[in-house]
Amino acid sequence: MAKKQIKSRKKPYLKVIILGLISIALYVAIFTNEVYVRETWALGGVYAALPIITVFIFSFIYGSFANYVFVLLGIEAKKK
What we know:
By secondary structure, the protein is mainly α. The chain has 3 helices and no strands.
């Protein structure tokens, strides 16, 4: 019988901490500058791209953070 090779992966503690802090900083920045953000995004025209760009940034950072949290907890998708 062939022996199973067990891959030893390092836990991404540092990535979880860094991405978590960046995520918190983004939320704090948005909510502390709520009036400015709301007024600027409501201008229309070229400014209509700002909400879309912001959502992509939040989605990427928070999605990466959540992924590494799941890896840290040992939760991974099934491989087909």
